[in-house]
Every structure is written in C-alpha cells, then in structure tokens.
Amino acid sequence: MNNKSLTIGIIDLGSNSIRLQIANVLEKSYRIVQEYREIVRIGDDLFKYGFLTESSINKIYACFTDIKKILESYNVGIIRAVATATLRELEKGHEIVQEIKSRFGINLKIISGEEEAKLSYLAISGSFQIDKYNAIITDIGGGSAEYTLALKGKIENITSKKLGCSRLKNMFLQHDPPEIVEVYKMKQHIQENIENYEDYNIDLVVSTGGTINNIANIYYLSSGKDEKTKIKYVPRKFLKDFINKIKYMNIENIKKIKGVEPKRADILLPAAINIEVLLSKSSSNGFYTFTGGLRTGLIIDTLNSMNITMPFQDLGEDIFYSQLIEIGNKFQFEEEHAKHVAFLSTRIFDELNKEWRLDNKNKDMLIAAAILHDIGNYISFSKHHKHSYYLIKNSDIAGFNYKQKMITAHIARYHRKSLPKKNHPVYEELDSKDINIVKNLAAILRVADGLDRGHKKFITDINVKVTENKIIIHPLSEEDITLEKKAFESKKDLLENITGKSVEIL
Fold this sequence. Notes:
Layout: E1 7-13, E2 17-25, E3 30-39, H1 43-49, H2 54-73, E4 78-83, H3 85-89, H4 93-104, E5 108-110, H5 113-125, E6 134-140, E7 145-151, E8 154-161, H6 165-172, H7 180-193, E9 204-208, H8 210-222, E10 231-235, H9 236-246, H10 251-254, H11 268-281, E11 286-290, H12 293-305, H13 311-314, H14 319-330, H15 335-356, H16 360-372, H17 384-393, H18 402-413, H19 426-429, H20 432-450, E12 461-466, E13 470-476, H21 482-491, H22 493-499, E14 502-505
Parallel strand pairs: 1-4, 4-5, 6-9, 9-11, 13-14
Antiparallel strand pairs: 1-2, 2-3, 6-7, 7-8, 10-11, 12-13
C-alpha cells in the first residue's frame, strides 16, 4: 500500500475517556485529520462496585458505533486499539474485547502498565531532549498512574501504580465537598505508593493524561498564557495554591473555575495531589505536560512498524532541529532546500552577529524560520509566505515560548515579497524590540533563500565578509549561478536597509 494514501486510526479506551485519532501517513511524519473523544468514566463503576454496570458497557459500545462510522468515512487502512487500567483489572474484560471484535471488527488489545508507559515515553522523546536530563515521565490516568525513571535517555525503572485520579476519588473522597480526613488519607496513600526519587538529581518531570492537561490549561488561562500549545510548564507554586483552593470546595463551584472541564471537576484534586507529591519526592519546582502521550506513542510505534522513522529517531540531531523537520514534513516541504537555506542563513548570521551580538535563541528562531519558510506552499504558492506565517504560528516548536514562535512566524512571512509595513500584523503582535529582531533575521533569510533560487544547492557554501560599508558574499560553486545572483540582487533590499551597508555578491 502506498504510504501517501494510507490513513491510520488510533483508539484509546481508558478509565475516564474513549478517544480516537485518525492520521494521514506522510514520508517522515503524520498529520492528524480527525479526533473523537467521549468522557465516559467507566472506571467509576469498577472502583465502586468491582464490575461494570450495563450502562457503562453500553457507553463503550455506543462510542465504538460512532468510532466505526468515522473510521469507515476516512477509509482507515490500519487500526491500533488499546485498553488500559479498567479492562486490565476487569474480570470479564476479555468478554468486552471479544464483543468489540464481533460487533465492529476492531481488534482491541489490553496493554500492561509497562507497555503504556513505554508508549508515552516514546511520544515524549519526540518533543523533549530526554538524553540531556534525569527525567521522570508520568502518565496519570483514571485507574492507574505510570512512572518512568529515565537517566540521560536510558530507562532505569518503570512502575505502574493504582493511583489513577478516578480510582483515588472513589476510594477516599466520599463527600462533597471532601472532609479534611478524606483528603489527608488520600494524600498519605499517594505518598506511601510513589517512590522517592530525591537521590537521582531529577531535572525534568513530564506528565501526560487528560486531567493533568486540564490543570495545565487552568494555569495557562489564569496567567494569560497561550493554552493551545501542546507542551506546557506548570510551576509547583501554582499547583500548591490550586490544591489549597479546591480541596474543600464542592464540585459545582470547582466547575465555575475558568478552564475546568466539567466532567473532570471531581477528579482534579486527586490528580493535582498526585503530581504535587511526585514533585516533592523528586525535589522539582514544576512539571511539563504533554497532550496525547499514549496516542502519540501508538502512532509513532505504528509508523515504525511500517519502516517509517520519525526525524527525532533518525537524524542524530537535537530535538529542536528534528521537530522542525517533522513539522516541515507534515506540510510536504522541500527538505533539502529548507536545510540548505538554514545552513546559508547561519553562515550570514555568524558574521553579522559579531556586530549585532544577538543571543543563541535568535539564531534558533532564524533556523526555524529558514526550515519552515516555504511550508505555506501546502496551502497555496501565490501567497505562501503569508500561509507559512499562519502555519508556524499554530505549530508547536520545541523550546520556544509563544513570543519566540510569533517572531519566527513573522521572519518566515518576510522571506519574500514586501518589506514590513506599519499596517502589517507584525506591528500589532510584537513590540518595537522584537520587530527589529524580525527585520534583522528576515533580512538574512531573504538573502539566503535567494542564494538557493533553483532549490538545487548550486551554491554549496559561502564566505561572508563584513566591512564598515559593505557586506560581501563570496559564493562557492561549480555551476552556473546566474539565477541565484539575480535572486540575490532582488532580495538584498532589507539587509541593506537595516545595516546601512551595500550588499554585494562576487
């Protein structure tokens, strides 16, 4: 089957929710084209009664009825369906698996806590430079919580504990609002079950799971941050304040807090205390969240089984660079051209920066803009610079905060056509200091892009000389570079404007 026409479906039957992701398979990446989620809370039955009621079982089948229709409408070629804690523990879980196979033709696999943890770790490895840290990766679900200890990229230990937020709620929080003794006993139980990580010099904690992500969204909304970003950082201080705020609050009032998902209101406290205890036992000041850990891991694992390797697994580069290549692949960019423009851009930057003295993060933004400057072609060639701006603005770039991503998007936007004007969005979205950074770095990108006009790397390298009055580019090439020189002349305008120097090519 041709990968370009292949679509895969990922199904995650958890204790709190049932989710579906459908992704188009690309050469070195994938693109999510449809998502489905239903918060069903089937784990509540198991944790209360030890079995699933007919109502909960019917919820599962109703969801799979919808999922089956969606899968068929997208002509999905490969389906990976997994179930976690609730079906792991349910005595008759295999009967539900068989019924799903019989009714819907979907092979549902009940996976172990260790398998669950490894898939989440695989997903997170694509967005964090794990080999540079002593890290704990935790997946806090409804029924269980997995804790993976990884030291400099090597998994040392995986534990799966019955510390899911729905389970804890049903075990301890019998009143609304909870009584003091209930909260105390729950926290004590969590403390007794989470291992002590203080001796490992932990410098990175990452958590996945829908309820933990909801807590991160609440924090970002309360502090005016961009809650749409896939990766969020939550300081421990906020977590402590949040716990103190809601621990004796009734559920209806918790629902009124900005950002709270109503169906998770009663399990926010167990999830928050769980991660706070982990931070305490690892001497950490905060944690990162990652959306869709298990499902992302399943997609990557499925691609790997098809002999498709993700950039972070293959390039031998850092996660920042690899993720840029992955984003580019999502939008079918010309990878070799993008890489070469980034290379030429850094050659120019390194010389000019002897005067500018910008920091390394500015160089990273230039590299990101250079790699992604043409991804707007995926939408339309004629205005692809504007489309590139929009796509970058709405992508997740490892290590970039919202402002840095916005600067990157604007740098890419000005790699062609008009120069920045007062009526352009850049003047509304950035302050004067950041606008100057955009101009400086866009000026470099314009020139570098011109030097690879034919997208054939005819100019293999450049030497750059900066004098008091001139910037001189000496191209290294054994080809006819007439077109490249012409493009260079048409795109040097911004660099001349901001430096006050003439820009010449030999």
